[in-house]
Amino acid sequence: MRSTLTYQDEEWDSRLDRLQKTEDEILEILSGVKIFESLTRAELQMVERIVHCREFFPQEVVVRQGAPGVGMYIIQSGSTDVVLEVGEDEVIRLASLTDGQFFGEMSLLDGAPRAASVISAERSQIIGFFSSDLMGLIEHAPKLGFKIILGISQLMGNRLRETVKDYRSALKELRQLTDN
Q1: What is the SS3 assignment for 163?
Q2: Other C-beta atoms lying within 10 Å of the C-beta of residue 115
Q3: Fewest Cβ atoms nearer than 10 Å: which of 58, 80, 134, 148?
Q4: How many Cβ atoms from other residues are within 10 Å of residue 79's Cβ?
Q5: Backbone dihedral angles phi then psi of residue 7, each to the nearest 5 degrees
């Protein structure tokens, strides 16, 4: 049914057996992910066959800040906290993510070290889509692989535009404060 995991990052490796979800459950969650929204049902089924499912317990690390980025993760159920480790004992919670939300998509393209840690806040079922999976798609189904890359690029472009907008707004407010 599901392919054997060809690459596991250190946090994904576990004594827990991977969860076996039905195709429909995974297709439903994948269809709601922004980078997969342009895919046909047949293309989503191809992605469904190569993703990996795992359950995380409360306070279990999904990805660790500084570890190599090897893929993206989609929360099927449960919730996680995105935290930034700024000192030995200092942690800043940046965000909470829940059902249908995803993180780590940039790692599909660049493999850069993780900018933050993601920790399961409760028992959570998470879907992993690794860069090796994407590279396999590009090799065997190039059109599908490039549609996914285009989706990631569009998402990153939208985020960059929003960040620039926020930066300009903050700069404007700062200038107003210094002019007074």
Answers
A1: helix
A2: 14
A3: 58
A4: 16
A5: -150, 135
H helix runs in the chain, sequence order? 23-31, 41-48, 107-110, 131-140, 142-179
pTM for this model (two decimals) = 0.81
Asked whether residue 60 carries a pLDDT value surpassing 70, the answer given is yes
Residue 73: closest CA among 12, 24, 137: 12
Average pLDDT, the chain: 88
The residue ranking higher by pLDDT, 20 or 17, is 20
Residue with tokens 């409760």: 122
Could you please state the CATH topology (level 3) that the domain comprising 23-179 is classified under. Answer: Jelly Rolls (2.60.120)
Taking CB atoms within 8 Å and a gap of at least 24, the contacts of 130-134 are 130/6, 130/7, 130/9, 130/52, 130/70, 130/71, 131/7, 131/70, 131/71, 131/107, 132/6, 132/7, 132/70, 132/71, 133/6, 133/50, 133/51, 133/71, 134/71, 134/108
Parse the chain into domains and list their residue ranges.
23-179
How many CB atoms are closer than 10 A to CB 168? 10
